[in-house]
Amino acid sequence: MNSILSVATVCLLILCPQLRLSADESPGESDPRPQERQLPFEMHAKMTQLPIVHVGPADADLVGTDNRVLQAAVDYIASLGGGTVEILPGEYLMRDSLHLRSNVTVRGTKGETILRKSDGVVSPLSVDGDFGEQQFTVADATGFQVGFGVAIWDQNAGGFHTSVARITGRSDNTFSIDKPLMADCMVHNKARAATVFPVVSGYDLRNVRVENLVIEGNKDANVELNGCRGGGIFLYRGFGTVIQNCEVRNYNGDGISFQQSNDVTIVGCRSESNTQLGFHPGSGSQRPVVQNCIARHNGTDGLFLCWRVKHGFFENNLLEANGRFGISIGHKDTDNLLQSNRVLRNGEDGVNFRNETLGMAAHRNRLRDNVIEDNGTNGSAAGIRIRGETDGLVFENNVIRDTRPSEKQSQKVGVLIENQVGTLTLLDNQIEAENPVEDKREK
Which of 292, 303, 367, 396 could join 427 via S-S bond, C-beta 3.0 to 4.6 A? Predict the structure, then answer.
């Protein structure tokens, strides 16, 4: 009987640890002190000092001026479990991406740490590249070298089917790569390889920060890399990454693109004069935050919400003088808040909701306190155009206007509502246009 009671007592103490407190203790007072509490995924407490290494042209822990020394620093810090790489002022020639690693912060000196994309080369393939193969053969191997970044594709292998990898070996005109081809790349479909890649990239990441870098894309000396696989800064499954005070300019493709990457934060960044999109969250990236950023003079859209971008927060950004739309929202992009942005002088509509059927449309997005002004520099446009079977939108307290002389005004319509659009709310907006609201829905 006593042994049964003893077992019961032990069980109570295990299941109800508060019973072990003395009469004058309250819950929590016997918890481990902060310095004794282990991290969630480590068997040690949080440390007050983490590894740091300085990289630069001189007077640094690691000395050099290209991607190899930067990568050596990032990989070294990653091997210690995480810390910080400080890149000193200077220009660094990038023949491959700087590949980010989990738990590593990469920090430059704002405006002075420049990562410059090298001149690229491109060649047709001379042998078909097959899905899953880890080699390719080019007609002209000039400019392809071991250690360089490379992209391989054909006219049917765009988007995510483009392969981006590193060259790991060579035999004549055949090169091995560190990743398998994502698609068949057929000679008869004009398959090509080019030494193009994101200048900074990260795959399958946690707890990464990128700060104070200038990315010089060198677009005149490189062919385009599509935004599903590239950008001046590119993330794929880069969960929780923070990009702060970075500038991406002159990249032949998107400025900053992140795909399948939840909880990404972009603050105080500039994306300018890139040939495609300024900021490109996409492919199911949920809860993105883009604040206090500038997208200017990009070839297409300033801010492009791609597929399944949900519960995002976009605030106090300037989307100006981009070639197509200031903001584009479409396929399953729902429940986002866009507030206090300035959408100015873009080529077509200021804000464009893309043409999607009911199950795929951009429902329940809210735009408030934005200024949408002087858009349509390529011709007649709307401040906001809503297409498809989009439903549940709210537009509140926005200023939508054209301030140019009347003979030069091209933002002719304030809000253009196409015929398939569902319910929407217009509340306390200030609209100055030849046609403030054009509603094509059946009454």
Answer: 396
